[in-house]
């Protein structure tokens, strides 16, 4: 049944008749609010309890995210780069390579995140040092213990390194401390600690992770690989499940990459076996594999990435390299295309295409823009990040998706 527009009658003004102010249908209000940035919506929450309730509604979070994906303007406006360097920082995507130029004034904003102020172990050791040295007993069991004098660095960043394990729909999976995972929304500052996996599962320090959204089951999932097992955490049920054995070697070292509803790793099925791209379907919770480029030498280590919606394969850790591969048609082994760069790298991660069409890459702890047409590149100077420590980076979208209320919302995300 078609909804009628309702109006609100205000008290008559002095010297005049009644004033009628139209009240728009809820779907129109949601459509309007879905076009606004997160910062404005948070300001509007203070207007009244009604506005607070409306803006906190998971239905608006759904509409806001849907608007982001269907409109290139909103997608560009809401895209961010998240940087980890003993803190988490956010960088506006639009400020990078805008209008074909180069903006020297890139400024990263420091984020608030869970366990931010928890000191790391080395910082606590420094607090107990005397005159730049620390004295400790070699063994408490010796009858005559020996005191050892340790020369410690004069200063150290007091915060832990934050591992970024994946990003999807505005939620970022982070590990701000050892054996501790959170789902974190940098835009709303909401977070949810992921419960520890059962003791029978692989230890966290021997595991790698992937994070993504299961469209069919309307669920956010964290996938954990380690010690020959595959475990899945579901945000809807807030628990871990062992979904089977890992059908590949355990020689997987990096976080998985999300694309087309699956999380991808480079893997092999045994010593001397060819490398394959292992794809874990978040819907079916099973692995399938795709062929790697034929010319890949299995003696090297490789990782996967995503650039402009295409799966990539890159060298990792061993030696300097100047090439990588792009799968131009997803799942089609014959579509692998080798690209040779004018810069060498040990570790490289594609992030996205900048406003001017250049590729934004994280190369050995630095950001650079690379022009794939003429092979030119330039490093980016990002202010607000401590120099010299290096960093890792990923991208995320500004959204209203809440890691705490999502499992209670019952909404169906169809973005």
Which overall shape is indicated by the principal axes computed on the Cα atoms?
globular
What composes the largest sheet?
Answer: 6 strands, antiparallel
- Order of strands across the widest beta sheet? 21-22-23-24-25-26
Helix-strand category: mainly beta
Topology, number of strands: 28
Give the termini separation: 26 Å
What are the segments in which pLDDT stays under 50 over at least 5 consecutive residues?
Answer: 1-11, 409-415
Q: What level of helicity do the residues show?
A: 10-25%
Which band does the percent of strand residues land in?
Answer: 35-45%
The total of helices stands at 7
Return Rg in Å.
Answer: 25 Å
Mean pLDDT: 83
Key features of this structure:
415 residues, six-stranded antiparallel sheet
């Amino acid at each position: 049944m078609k909804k009628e527009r309702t109006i609100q009658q205000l008290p008559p003004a002095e010297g005049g008749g009644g004033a009628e102010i139209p009240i728009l249908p809820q779907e129109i209000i949601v459509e309007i609010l879905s076009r606004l940035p997160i910062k404005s919506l948070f300001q509007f929450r203070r207007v009244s309890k009604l506005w607070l309730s409306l803006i906190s509604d998971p239905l608006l979070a759904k509409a806001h995210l849907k608007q982001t994906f269907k409109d290139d303007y909103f997608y560009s406006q809401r895209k961010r780069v998240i940087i980890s360097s003993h803190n988490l920082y956010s960088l506006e995507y639009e400020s990078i390579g805008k209008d074909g130029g180069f903006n020297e004034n890139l400024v990263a904003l420091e984020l608030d995140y869970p366990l931010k102020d928890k000191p790391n172990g080395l910082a606590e050791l420094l607090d107990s040092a005397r005159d730049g040295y620390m004295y400790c007993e070699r063994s408490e069991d010796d009858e005559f213990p020996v005191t050892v004098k340790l020369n410690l660095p004069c200063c150290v960043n007091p915060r832990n390194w934050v591992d970024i394990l994946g990003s999807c729909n505005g939620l970022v999976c982070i590990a701000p401390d050892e054996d501790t995972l959170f789902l974190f929304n940098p835009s709303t500052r909401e977070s949810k600690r992921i419960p520890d996996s059962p003791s029978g599962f692989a230890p966290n320090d021997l595991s790698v992770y992937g994070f993504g959204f299961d469209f069919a089951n309307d669920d956010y999932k964290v996938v954990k690989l380690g010690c020959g097992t595959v475990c899945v955490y579901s945000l809807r049920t807030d628990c871990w499940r062992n979904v089977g054995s890992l059908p590949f070697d355990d020689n997987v070292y990096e976080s998985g990459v999300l694309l087309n509803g699956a999380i991808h790793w480079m893997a092999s099925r045994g010593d001397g076996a060819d490398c394959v791209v292992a794809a874990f379907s978040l819907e079916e919770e099973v692995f399938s594999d795709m062929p790697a480029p034929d010319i890949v030498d299995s003696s090297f280590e490789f990782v996967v990435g995503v650039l402009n919606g295409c799966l990539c394969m890159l060298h990792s850790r061993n030696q300097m390299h100047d090439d990588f591969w792009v799968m131009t048609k997803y799942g089609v082994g014959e579509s692998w295309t080798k690209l040779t760069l004018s810069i060498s790298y040990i570790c490289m991660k594609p992030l996205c295409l900048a406003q001017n069409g250049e590729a934004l890459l994280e190369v050995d702890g630095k950001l650079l823009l690379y022009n794939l047409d003429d092979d030119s590149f330039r490093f980016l100077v990002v202010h607000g990040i401590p120099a010299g420590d290096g960093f890792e980076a990923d991208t995320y979208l500004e959204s209203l998706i809440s890691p705490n209320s999502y499992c209670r919302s019952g909404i169906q995300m169809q973005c």
